[in-house]
Design goal:
Elements (H helix, E strand, L loop, with lengths): L10 H28 L4 H16 L1 H9 L1 E4 L5 H14 L5 E5 L6 E7 L2 E7 H6 L2 H16 L2 H8 L1 H11 L18 H36 L2 H15 L4 H6 L27 H19 L1
Parallel strand pairs: 2-4
Antiparallel strand pairs: 1-2, 3-4
Helix pairs in contact: 1-9, 2-8, 4-6, 6-9, 6-10, 8-9, 9-12, 10-12
Length: 298
């Protein structure tokens, strides 16, 4: 019988993620307080945007699969893939998600869905053709770690007020100039505050996304016990992506936040704005985990 692993807490990573969420909450609280003090009736706007995001949250798996042209496959169609994922899920202690295949040459994988019971893990043909079985297992374990950690839910909730702020900024000059309590002259603060909140929250959410990638890498290492296999897979995927035609990469660029490695990345994009840490930093972290695991064994 396959034993379920204990999911230890990475204290440093948890502190960074909690700190990021706290700063997001603080920024959002200040933003709402300023809007209320000026007299802007933003309740209806918040409700509308929240409704849109909740719809996206509940139907994210279908939207993502549709955008990628992914095909949900059955156990009869992909017995080897299902066997692999079933075993990894037993170790991770989560229900088995649906599996999908994307018939694209771009080597990548992603997970989507609001929780473990409503999730999908997908792999591309390009990924499966280039990785060994151990490397593919490591990549799947990374995606299953995202499912276990409920990353889709966390990022969606973190993005709520950020989206509202962007919407307010974009439409700020259509806001009536009136206000309550003689504050009609303060309307100009609305677009300024909205812009500041959107920029700050954008950077914090990107940081949160990078922290979640480190956590998923660590989860993969714990599930498989082979951090080096994920490191090897990351190197292969990164190297192969550089050889994929730019046109093909741009077709899936919108999925970067979901992918194990962004479809378009490099020196031209500052790490500060990236959804993922650099491959070099991820491999360094995996090498550290490898040393830790070897230390426990010896």
């Amino acid at each position: 019988m396959i034993g379920m692993i204990r999911w230890p807490m990475d204290l440093g990573l948890q502190i960074r993620m909690i700190g990021t969420m706290f700063l997001l909450a603080l920024v959002y609280f200040i933003f709402i307080a300023v809007l209320a003090s000026i007299g802007v009736d933003s309740l209806i706007l918040v409700v509308i945007i929240a409704g849109v995001l909740l719809l996206q949250y509940f139907f994210s798996d279908k939207l993502v699969l549709l955008s990628m042209g992914a095909e949900v496959v059955t156990e009869q169609q992909e017995p080897q893939l299902y066997e692999m994922v079933t075993r990894l899920c037993a170790i991770a202690g989560i229900p088995r998600p649906k599996l999908a295949v994307v018939h694209k040459s771009v080597p990548n994988a992603f997970a989507t869905g609001r929780n473990a019971k409503h999730s999908v893990v997908a792999v591309t043909d390009g990924l499966r053709s280039m990785l060994t079985q151990d490397e593919l297992e490591a990549v799947l374990a990374h995606e299953l770690s995202h499912v276990k950690n409920r990353d889709s839910m966390i990022i969606t909730l973190a993005s709520l007020i950020s989206t509202v702020a962007f919407f307010i900024f974009r439409n700020s000059f259509m806001i009536p100039r009136g206000g309550r309590g003689g504050k009609e002259n303060l309307w100009f603060l609305v677009p300024i505050m909205a812009a500041v909140v959107w920029v700050v929250s954008f950077l914090l959410i990107k940081a949160l996304s990078r922290y979640r990638e480190y956590a998923a890498d660590r989860g993969s290492a714990l599930i498989t016990g082979k951090p080096s296999q994920l490191a090897s897979a990351l190197m292969k995927i990164s190297g192969m992506i550089q050889r994929v035609p730019t046109r093909d990469l741009r077709e899936v660029e919108g999925m970067n936040a979901f992918f194990i490695i962004p479809a378009l990345s490099g020196e031209s994009i500052m790490e500060l704005f990236g959804t993922h840490p650099t491959v070099e930093k991820r491999i360094a972290a995996l090498e550290k985990i490898e040393s830790e695991l070897q230390g426990h064994v010896t």
